[in-house]
Amino acid sequence: MKVRILIMPKEGLLDPQGRAVTELLTSKGYKIESAKVGKVIEMEVDDSVDIEEIAKKYLVNPLIESYKVEKE
Amino acid sequence: MKFGVCVFPGSNCDYDTYYVIRDVLERDVRFIYHNETDLKDVDVLILPGGFSFGDYVRPGLLASKTALMDAVIDFAHKGGIVLGICNGFQILTEAGLLPGALLPNINGRFICKDVYIRIETNSRILTNKLKKGEALRLPIAHHDGRYYVDDKTLKELEENEQIIFRYADKEGNANGETNPNGSISNIAGICNKEGNVFGMMPHPERASEDVLGNHDGLMLWYSLIS
User: Fold this and answer.
1) Residue B108 and residue A16: Cβ atoms within 8 Å?
2) Residue of A nearest to B105 (CA)
3) Among the residues of chain A, which ranges form H helices?
4) N or C end of chain A: smaller count of CB under 10 Å?
5) Is the Cα dihedral B207, B209, B213, B217 positive or negative?
6) Residue A39 scores a pLDDT above 90
7) What confidence category does residue A72 fall into, taking pLDDT thresholds of 50, 70 and 90?
């Protein structure tokens, strides 16, 4: 199965990349309220793999990041 | 006292650190590679700066999951002394040996310059040769040095004298203007509650010889070996 872990900077934390994107698009005349830059980890895995365990134990730092898992 | 300098793929301050220990401090030292697990012959471990595993996913994350770091965690839990510098600090937070996290600098840029840091306590082994309130000039070179921790843990750090350094000016005044990267409460270095694991963003190994124009880092090494 194909799975994606979407990792985002946690709500309330300053995200300099997101701020830079907001500033760029605003300067081009777009009405942007905010932008955030996160990352996607896409994996092809056996159905038996515990994605939540992988996310929590290895890939996500809960102090500074939030995440969600998408399965196809 | 024997030192070990941990080497991960992408470490790049490993030799500078090794050199200072061997040639300036004249102490026994060896490199320890990321797949090693036997730390019986060393007393102090240094996790040097660099870009371990290319900073992939998050700085320090992949290094924190290596066989060597499993051994380092065990070493630290038994009371062994560990100092993480720059990327080493990031590895220690990712490994859970130090609280908090290092986020991208507030200005979104890599910062490479000399800063002043104020000694917040001299009751810890990394600063026992220094005076509280004294300022040292040390170089920083990082993209992800914005120390962050939740309010509750920050309070604990303060109460337990775990904050070792704050970004300050030459006179030791710490405020928003002396904070290069947006770190919470100007924090530049901390230790764990037990006082045997240290993390700092500035590089003392780059400021330990007169020929380099700065030896302010030396007193930290002397404290460590005293």
Assistant:
1) yes
2) A16
3) 16-27, 51-54
4) C
5) positive
6) yes
7) confident
How far apart are alpha carbons B133 and B127 in whole angstroms?
11
Give the chain A residue nearest B108 (alpha carbons).
A16
Q: What CATH number does the domain containing A53 carry? A: 3.30.1280.10
The CATH class for the domain spanning B2-225 reads: alpha beta
Instruction: State which residues form the domain around A30.
Output: 2-71
Mean pLDDT of A35-48: 96
Find residue B5's DSSP bridge partners.
Answer: B31, B46
Give the distance from residue A55's alpha carbon to the nearest chain B alpha carbon, in angstroms: 12
Counting every residue, how long is chain A? Answer: 72
Q: Is B103 on the interface with A (CB under 8 A)?
A: yes
Query: Chain A closest CA to B41's CA: distance in Å?
Result: 30
Q: Does B110 touch chain A (CB under 8 A)?
A: no
B77-114 burial code (b ≥16 CB/10 A, e <16): eeebbbbbbbbbbbbbbbbebbbbbbbbbbeeeebeee
Other Cβ atoms within 10 Å of B22 Cβ, number:
15
Q: What is the mean pLDDT of each run of 10 residues along chain B (226 residues)?
A: 97 98 98 97 98 96 97 98 98 98 96 98 97 98 98 98 98 97 98 98 97 96 95
Q: How many C-beta atoms lie closer than 10 Å to residue A30's C-beta?
A: 9
pLDDT class of A30 with cuts at 50, 70, 90: very high
Tally of structural domains, chain A: 1
Collect all residues of chain A within an 8 Å Cβ-Cβ radius of residue B105.
Answer: 16
Q: Determine the residue among A57, A63, A65 to mutate to test chain B binding: the one whose Cβ has the most chain B Cβ atoms within 10 Å.
A: A63
